Amino acid sequence: MKSDREIKEMVKEKYGAIADTTKAQNASSCCGSRCGCSDVEFSVMAENYAKLPGYVPDADLSLGCGLPTEFALIKPGDTVVDLGSGAGNDCFVARSIAGEGGHVIGIDMTDAMIAKARANAARLGLRNVEFRLGEIEQIPVEDATADVVVSNCVMNLVPDKKKAFAETFRIMKPGGHFSISDIVLQGELPAGLRDEAALYAGCISGALQKDEYLSAITEAGFENVRVQKERKVEIPAEILARYLSLEQLEEYRRKPVGIISVTVYAEKGQR
């Protein structure tokens, strides 16, 4: 069992390497270059951002598993915080909605991603978008700052999810809300999938059961928790075969086990 610090260092290393790739390079693998399977041409996690206002191709590394900004109910003038902002993809979409009067803050724990996001923002001339280096379990944002929080396929990588949701609650204004896309599980995955270190950084092995994930949000104090979108992630047999024996693969197919992409909405009460 890896320690929390070991997991974080592994994720930093993986995402630091991804920062130097293009979307085309990263999306050509099973779930981005995070899985170490770049010879298999599948992108089973990411969704298409191209239709959204504010989309910046250079900031899209095909790392997400949903479109949280599409569901986030951002208004002009809002302060938006993106947890795990990567190269800035969701931040730039959020800024296009929040407008000149809004403020967007991206948080990421990987130096290379912060550098890439800042370079993208500078190239676009965006003065109300900033990127801060930090961890989601200790978000470098003042209390009651955010009207809206978004995050895309990041919370499942955080070892202490309860602390992460508590921090999310802390930085939100009373009456604020979040829209978070993430990977959750239905049933128990075979040990080979959960324990493989490379796959952990590829979204799956750090995921919670769906009910457990939603309970962690409620326990943090959030209200009106609901799933805005849900879809099953189909992992191709070529990829499963990397982590499962033939016997395990047959068992996996027989059982009602699934990897689910969800986009979850929740509110912070007025008090």
Strand order of the largest sheet: 3-2-1-4-5-7-6
In CATH, what is the homologous superfamily? Vaccinia Virus protein VP39
- Low-confidence segments: 28-42
**Oligomerization status of the protein chains:** single chain
- Major beta-sheet overview: 7 strands, mixed
CATH architecture: 3-Layer(aba) Sandwich
Average pLDDT reading: 84
Question: Looking at the structure, what is the overall shape?
Answer: globular
Q: How many angstroms separate the termini? A: 40 Å
Element pattern in H and E:
HHHEHEHEEHEHHHEHHE
Q: What is the number of E strands? A: 7
CATH class: Alpha Beta
CATH topology: Rossmann fold
- Number of helix segments? 11
Which descriptors apply to this entry?
seven-stranded mixed β-sheet; globular; Rossmann fold; 35% helix; single chain; alpha/beta
